Amino acid sequence: MSGQVLDRVDHPPAGVREDPGGFDLSAPDGTRYRVDLTTAVLDPRNTLLARHLEGRRVVAFVSPAVDRLYGDRLRAYLDAHARRGQWTLHVIRTGEHHKTLAAAEHVCALAKADGLDRHGLMLAVGGGIVADVVGFAASIYARGIRYIKVNTTLVGQVDVGVGVKTGVNALQTKNMFGAYHPAHASLNDPAFLATLPHREIRCGLAEIVKMAVILDDGLFRTLERHPDVFRRLGDGDPDHSHGDLETYVLRTSMRLMMEELCPNLQEHDLARLVDFGHTFSPVVETAGGHRLEHGEAVAVDMALSAHVARLLGLADDETCERVVRLLRRIGLPVFDPLTCTPGLMTQALRASWQRRGRKLHLVVPTGIGKAAFVEELEDLPGEVLVAALEALAADGERRDA
Ligand SMILES: NC(=O)c1ccc[n+]([C@@H]2O[C@H](COP(=O)([O-])OP(=O)(O)OC[C@H]3O[C@@H](n4cnc5c(N)ncnc54)[C@H](O)[C@@H]3O)[C@@H](O)[C@H]2O)c1
Ligand SMILES: O=C(CO)[C@@H](O)[C@H](O)[C@H](O)[C@H](O)COP(=O)(O)O
Ligand SMILES: [Zn+2]
C-alpha cells in the first residue's frame, strides 16, 4: 500500500446528467454547475431562485424590455425573498452596440455604489447581452464574484445560459474581452418565450439548427416538420407558450450543447463543432453595423458554410439544400448583400484563423447530424469562396421556401 493516496472526495464522473428539473454538468477539469428548468420562476411561491440567493446581497440587472414586461414581478419576488435593503435593481441598455467594456464598468460601478461585497451576487435577468455583460462584470468585480442568470430569450436558454462564457465587444471585434466564468445558478423558464418577438425566436432557432446540423438528424427532421416551433402557441400569454414539441426541442438543444461543451469547457481545444455558423458571422454582424442580429448572422454563416462544404465535396447537394431550405422556412436570412462579399468574407476567414491560433477550424456539415473541420486557410481556395457566395446570393433571391 505504500505510496498510494486514497482520494476520499466523491467526484461524479464527468458528463451531463438530465433530470426532470434540469441538467447537471460535471467537467473533467472539476468544474460543476447546474442549469435548472422551471416554471413561474418569478412567482414568489416558487422558491428555486430564492434558494440560490442564499440570503446574499443582490444587485439585479434587466434590459428595458424585460423591465417593462417582468420588472414588477421581479421586484415583488425580491421583496418577498431578499431582506429589505439587501437588493437593488437596475435597467441597463441592450443591443450589440451596448455590449461594451464601458457597459461592464457601469455594471461594476452600480454594484459598488450599492455596496456589493465579495459574498454578494449579481443577478442577470434577460437575454444573451445582459448575461454576457453582467457575467463579465461579475468575473472582474473584486477579482470575481457570484452571478446568477435567469435566461429570458431562446438564445439565452439553449446557448448562453448553458455555457460558461461571458464577454463584451471591443476593438471592432465581437467578444474581444471576456472570461470563462460559470454562473452560480442558471435558470430557464420557457414561459418567458411567450412574450419574445418572433425575430428573437428565429434567432434562437438558428442556434438550435446549428446543434441539429452538427449532431442530431432527428432534431433536424423535427425542425423540418415544425419550422414554426415556439411560434405556434405563443400569443403573449405565458400560460399558453409550451407544448410537448417545444419541450422536446428545448431539452434536446440544451442537452446537446452541454454535452458538447463539457469536455472542453475552457476551450483549450479551439476546434469546436458548436462554432458551426460562427466563423463568417462576426464580420456579418460587425461590418454590417449590427443590422443583423447574432442569430441571423449565424444563419447566413451556416448557409455559406453548407455551400463551401458542397463545393469542396465534403457534403452532397441534398445536405446543403436541406440546411438552406430549413433556415429559409424558419424565416432566417441566408444572405446579406452588404457583407457577403469576397473581400469581407476573406477578412472574416483570416480573422478567425488568427484568433484560433492560426488554424481555420471552419465547421462544415458533412451530412445532416454530422460535421467536420476545414483546418487550413489554403484548404478553402478563393474561387470556392466566390462560388459559394454566388450560390448564396441566388438562395437569397429565391422566392420559394
Ligand atoms: N456567452 C455565450 O456563450 C453566448 C452564446 C450565444 C450568444 N451569445 C451572445 O448573446 C447575444 C445575443 O443574445 P440574445 O439573442 O438573447 O439577444 P438580446 O440579449 O439582445 O435579447 C434580444 C431582445 O429581446 C429582449 N427580451 C429579452 N427577453 C425577453 C422576453 N422574454 N420577452 C420580450 N423581450 C425580451 C431584450 O431586451 C432584447 O431587446 C449576442 O451578443 C451573442 O454574441 C453569447
Ligand atoms: O455565439 C456564441 C455561441 O453560440 C458565442 O458566444 C461564442 O463565443 C462563439 O463560440 C464564438 O463566436 C466563437 O468565436 P471564437 O471564440 O473562435 O472567437
Ligand atoms: Zn452564437
From TrEMBL:
<dbReference type="InterPro" id="IPR050071">
    <property type="entry name" value="Dehydroquinate_synthase"/>
</dbReference>
<keyword id="KW-0456">Lyase</keyword>
<protein>
    <recommendedName>
        <fullName>2-epi-5-epi-valiolone synthase</fullName>
        <ecNumber>4.2.3.152</ecNumber>
    </recommendedName>
</protein>
<feature type="domain" description="3-dehydroquinate synthase N-terminal">
    <location>
        <begin position="91"/>
        <end position="202"/>
    </location>
</feature>
<feature type="compositionally biased region" description="Basic and acidic residues">
    <location>
        <begin position="7"/>
        <end position="20"/>
    </location>
</feature>
<dbReference type="GO" id="GO:0046872">
    <property type="term" value="F:metal ion binding"/>
</dbReference>
<dbReference type="GO" id="GO:0000166">
    <property type="term" value="F:nucleotide binding"/>
</dbReference>
<keyword id="KW-0547">Nucleotide-binding</keyword>
<keyword id="KW-0479">Metal-binding</keyword>
<dbReference type="GO" id="GO:0017000">
    <property type="term" value="P:antibiotic biosynthetic process"/>
</dbReference>
<dbReference type="Pfam" id="PF01761">
    <property type="entry name" value="DHQ_synthase"/>
</dbReference>
<dbReference type="InterPro" id="IPR030963">
    <property type="entry name" value="DHQ_synth_fam"/>
</dbReference>
<keyword id="KW-0170">Cobalt</keyword>
<dbReference type="InterPro" id="IPR056179">
    <property type="entry name" value="DHQS_C"/>
</dbReference>
<dbReference type="GO" id="GO:0009073">
    <property type="term" value="P:aromatic amino acid family biosynthetic process"/>
</dbReference>
<feature type="region of interest" description="Disordered">
    <location>
        <begin position="1"/>
        <end position="23"/>
    </location>
</feature>
<dbReference type="InterPro" id="IPR030960">
    <property type="entry name" value="DHQS/DOIS_N"/>
</dbReference>
<keyword id="KW-0520">NAD</keyword>
<dbReference type="Pfam" id="PF24621">
    <property type="entry name" value="DHQS_C"/>
</dbReference>
<dbReference type="InterPro" id="IPR035872">
    <property type="entry name" value="EEVS-like"/>
</dbReference>
<dbReference type="GO" id="GO:0003856">
    <property type="term" value="F:3-dehydroquinate synthase activity"/>
</dbReference>
<feature type="domain" description="3-dehydroquinate synthase C-terminal">
    <location>
        <begin position="204"/>
        <end position="336"/>
    </location>
</feature>
